[in-house]
Amino acid sequence: MIPFQPDGSFHPIATGEGLRRSAVRGAGMAIAGQASNFIVQIGSVVVLARLLTPADFGIVTMVTTFGLLFRSFGMNGFTELIMQREDLTDSLASNLFWIEIGIGALLTLVFAALGPLLARFYHDPTVAPVAALMSLSIGIGCIGWIHMGLLQRALQFRTTAIINFAGQVALVITSIALAVAGWHYWALVWGIIAQTVVVAAGAWMMCRWVPGRPQSVPGTGSGLKFVASVYSHFAFSYSTRNTDNLLVGWRFGAQSLGFYKKAYDLFVLPENQLLAPLSAVVVSTLSRVNGNREQFQRYFLRAVSVLALVGMGVGADFALVGRDLFRFLLGPGWEEAGKIFALFGPGIGVMLLYNTHGWVHLSIGRPERWFRWGLLEFACTASLFLVALHWGPSGIALAWTVSYFLLMFPGFWYAGQPIGLGMGPIFATIWKFFAASIVAGLGAALILKIAPAFAAGSGAQDAFIRMAADSLLFFTLYALAVVVFHRGLTPITDTIGLLHDLLPARPREVKISAAVDA
């Protein structure tokens, strides 16, 4: 893709019905790509959990707890600016690229120098060399983020999905090969570096743009303020999400952190698989209709409705089968992670819905409000962590679940104020799915309590049989509850229709669409 025209302006973007069609197709590509990543990731978890120890995962998590904050510079801030800014030019993009490269190089040196301090904090000398090597991923990553942002602005989500999938494959192959060779935690570190290199190289290959020399361009200053607001919010949100790792690693050591991190990874799995690939698509779409409140609200509520249907169901089911899922995926020795996850499960659906409030802030160009909300979010969640630390990793997991229930509706209210997005429509959209998940979950738990177990053993095969049977029972009850609460099949048929729209267009459909647009 060549992103800029000879006069330096960005190439035209679809509008109206063409925008909606491109956005929906883009969302389908993004979700398909994330699903492919998920399959590869699950396969790697099954293999690596049997090659490495919980302590190996814990050591790497000690470093990535801080390192991911540095590595995400550019991915959070610059890419959103490129998608949101209407008057993006070649010269402005070039300025942003060189600014990002400069700051990324500085962050690389700073993080490498922090290694000894991290080792002293965690009381583990192996942390320092891991941090020094991991710092390389910061500077390498910054090379490709502007190009990824340009691809997303052009709605080239199929391309970005392929790039991210290639990076995930590189991470898995490298990690497994080195783990088999006996490299222990170094296998995970080199896997991360391989992923970063592949993503950056893929972005340059698919976006045929070479940045020009820096020059004085209108919009650079205001753009950097936008970036600073978005990244500041990300930093506080990231601090919220990783204070738990810091506290568990500091207080209970690498092995406990390894158990906790695997439970947390499963907790955020629905967010990574559903919310993350949708975010770029939804923000790009809502940014182009933010002047029409009714259309904005209609697009936003439709996305929230689908997430509520899927998220509430997946969250309740994971809470029901979480322990068997860990037995099946990770094998013996990881039972403690399953116990921790049981307290994460009830918060999965609420977490998915709560995090959509960021779409509103970004699409209406108000990242400073998102940043201010992030301060409140950090204060609330970190306070809950400190209170729950007494009960160990399980207490931290419960604190996460409670925090999302406390923050969800205030977060929606604050985000919707500038555009007049009221709480009433949002509440009316999601409460029935919430109620259906509770009714189905309690009903399934009661039936399973009085009915004989499908498989009573503790092996992986028995765990899989129980998990499949319990999930089938729950989702049957959940679908019935959704129909009863909505007095019809509308939410299910709407979601099926959207899933059909997400599929790649067949040649005949493309010709018909072109004729309609003409």
What does this structure look like?
With 518 residues, this protein is mainly α. The protein has two domains: 15-218, no CATH class; 252-518, no CATH class. 81% of the residues lie in helices and 0% in strands. It is built from 22 helices and no strands. The chain has helices spanning 16-51, 54-71, 78-84, 90-113, 115-122, 127-134, 136-142, 145-153, 157-180, 185-206, 220-267, 269-287, 293-330, 335-344, 348-354, 357-363, 367-388, 392-416, 423-450, 460-486, 490-502, 507-517. The longest helix is centred in the middle third of the chain and has 48 residues, at 220-267. The radius of gyration is 23 Å and the shape is globular. The model is unreliable at 505-518 (pLDDT under 50).
Q: Give the end-to-end Cα distance, rounded to a whole number of Å.
A: 24 Å
- What would the average pLDDT be, to the nearest integer? 83
Helix content: over 70%
Q: Globular, elongated, flat, extended or rod-shaped: what is the shape?
A: globular
**Annotation field: number of helices:** 22
Overall number of structural domains: 2
The ordered H/E elements are HHHHHHHHHHHHHHHHHHHHHH
Radius of gyration: 23 Å
Q: What's the total number of strands?
A: 0
Q: Report low-confidence residues grouped into runs of 5 or more.
A: 505-518
Strand content: under 5%
Which class best fits the helix and strand makeup?
Answer: mainly alpha
Largest sheet: none
